[in-house]
Here is the input.
Amino acid sequence: MKKDIRSYTFEELQNEMELLGEKKFRSSQIYEWLHVKLADSFEEMTNLSKPLREKLEAEYTIWPLEMLERQVSELDGTNKFLFQLQDDHVVESVLMRYKHGNSVCISSQVGCRMGCRFCASTIGGLERNLSASEMVGQIYQIQKISGERVHNVVVMGTGEPLDNYDNFLEFIRILTDEHGLNISQRNVTVSTCGIVPRIKELAKENLQITLALSLHGATQEKRQKLMPVAKQYNLQEVLEACDFYFRETGRRITFEYSLVAGVNDAAEDAKELIAICSPRNCHLNLIPVNPIKERDFVQPSRQSAEKFKKNLEKYGINVTIRREMGSDIDGACGQLRRKHAKKQKDKEEI
Ligand code: SAH
Here is the structure.
């Protein structure tokens, strides 16, 4: 099988080219075609000789992602994309436009095996991991299709990035390499459900990316009801791993907390959250749960979410309610992909 050339870091590509007997500067040119000019074929690489292009063609493939669907929100300009991969699996990605720049939310796996109760991405289980090239590919395609530069990247789409650790790390190195798109590490956020050993490993990688922890419950008991992974790594351990990440990297942790009416939005929950947040240098992001049709979780009213927020603010906690983007399109994680899967199934059954 041909090798996936877009999955190599700059150093790895240099080694590959050396093995092919090519000069070192060739790898800079090729890397630039792949990760700056976002070429989808070797033919486009016009400053390489024809024999070299043919040699590359024989050994490697680029594997562009194919856009299957694009939904554009009329409310806030959010774009939701469905991309098809080489083996016909599909992933979704989102482009959000903020005042401070364009942000892209990417998927890290096809499906997910973490089983969080309120999440649509996990319902069909995990299909497979995404390669580093399929992760950068989502950003590259969005940049090409929209014609706009991407400034921030959040790994908050389908999948658990730390369950696909090696590819995720390659992805970060490629994305933030000065020879490539050169996105600042500080503009990259990775969200995890709390895989403790991987958080500690990530803390040691000498990176400056932001870690967001999906908290969702402020006690062990509540958290494990919503997130099965909490049975494996308890709340105390997860918080200690976050503290370790902060100590090692100096990066402030973000806690994500999906507000679910009647489940985790009472005054008592706010009190437990205050106990977690107030001794820490952190940012708390409240996300009114996005209802999915497979479950009956309900969003709290705007008023009650505001009240919850005010309660935390009184204690000096840095807290925001996440603005809902693209609510007129299939906004919540995994919804567009599930709709597509259902359409395919219906077609097969006819
Ligand atoms: N696996 C990673 C990334 C997943 S999605 C993680 O668990 O963090 C990013 C965030 O969206 C997570 O905090 C996740 O718990 C949350 N999320 C998933 N489905 C949601 C929904 N229906 N409503 C609100 N938040 C949701």
User: Anything to note?
Assistant: The first strand starts at residue 3 and ends at 4. The pocket of S-adenosyl-L-homocysteine is lined by residues 114, 116, 118-119, 156, 160, 191-193, 214, 256, 258, 287, 289-290, 292, 332-333 (CB under 6 Å). DSSP finds twelve helices and 14 strands in the chain.
